[in-house]
Amino acid sequence: MHYKTDYHIHTTYSDGKASPEEYIEPAIAAGISEIGFSEHLALFKDNQDWVMNPQNVGTYLAYLDNLKSKTDKLIIRKGLEVDYLEGKEYETGVFLDGFDLDYRIGSVHYLGERTVDEGPDFYTGKNFDRLFESYFEMVCNAVASGLFDIIGHCDLIRIFGYKPSFDPGPFYHKLAKTMKQYDVAFEINTNGRNRPMADFYPDRRFLRYFSEKKVPVCVNSDAHMPARVGQYFDEAYRLLKDNGFTEMVAFSSRERRFISF
Ligand SMILES: [Zn+2]
Ligand SMILES: [Zn+2]
User: Fold this and answer.
1) Ligand 1 centre from 25 Cα, in Å?
2) From the CA of 12, how far away is ligand 2's center (Å)?
């Protein structure tokens, strides 16, 4: 059986539906060897109910340390899913350097003051081609910021099934090149299957670009409820293999190791 890690999990510390310990048994049942929690953090954005209050990061990590000390059936990793905010790179880095994390997921949810996954209304009256370009530009900037170990759902802009009028291939090609240049991993995020566009992130048609550049990869569920931990992972591993990947990356104290398929 494949060694499975799932590093993208949300609990009631942000917008997940269950506490960290409620994920442990389902993760074991799903064959996960390393589970990593990654609460949402959007520094410098006020009044957002889907993210953790930055003041609670210490409490959250202490809670995970305690859970780790009581759990021996699988490895618990400590992470955060941090919004990339342009112009706030320095402050974000200073904040994150204050914590002992196994990895940092960097994600783009915001385009302007609203998030691209809040609902289809976000797209009403907007030019999707421009949104698509802006989204990829932001993700490339997140990669180049050097703040993150993994980029979360790198094409979240697909969430509601809208498609650009042009061939998006060159955007994925540039993203893969940038990830290689800055040595940042991407994830197959299986939660896209549960969203309106009903497929994994990123677009499977372009995975070959990432494998050709040897961009490190992990498979993550982005589970917001215990039933979804490790969901669709066997299919995701198969997809990676079919696209030429031979290994995936695991994290501990922001150090990487590679696990062969
Ligand atoms: Zn996210
Ligand atoms: Zn997430």
Assistant:
1) 24
2) 13
Placement of tokens 């990669």 in the chain: 143
* Type of residue found at 244: G
Q: State in Å: Cα 22 to ligand 1 middle.
A: 21
Angle at 142 (CA atoms; ends 235, 89), nearest 5 degrees: 145
The pair of structure tokens assigned to 250 is 């695991």
Q: What is the dihedral of CA 60, 61, 64, 69, to 10 degrees?
A: -140
For residue range 3-17, list pLDDT tens digits in order. 999 999 999 999 999
Residue 41 neighbours by CB under 8 Å, 6+ apart: 14, 51, 52, 54, 57, 80, 81, 82, 83
pTM here?
A: 0.98
**Is 82:147 a contact under the CB 8 Å cutoff?**
yes
